Amino acid sequence: MFSFWPLLAGFIFVLRLSTYYHALNLINIKEVALFAIISPIITFAYSFLLFGETLNLIQIVGVLMVFLGIYIHVVMKSKIQKNEPKQNMV
Fold it and tell me: Angle between the 57-83 and 29-51 helix axes, to the nearest 10 degrees?
């Protein structure tokens, strides 16, 4: 019996990989890495919606750690940008 799930998974993988490389051309690699870190969380969201999957305690802690890391990155980036001296454009 033929199943379309492997074809769908392959298509999504190729789509994700091509958008990743396209993003590398457009923005800083640090920002692209943040999106790559979120990838498993997005995968869980789809598996929850499609298959009714649930998270166990370790996975919930992992998700929280990912979001904490992203929050720390964003906060530190904004603090660094505030402390940088402004360059005069002449």
Answer: 150
Residue 57 has pLDDT above 90, yes or no: yes
The mean per-residue pLDDT over the stretch 52-74 comes to 89
Structure tokens, 65: 């750690």
Domain carrying residue 11: 5-83
Is position 88 within any domain?
no
Please give the Cα distance from 65 to 15 (Å, whole number). 27
Establish if 90 belongs to a structural domain: no
Report CA 24 to chain centroid distance, whole Å.
13
Domain count, the chain: 1
Nearest to 53 by CA among 66, 65, 40, 64: 40
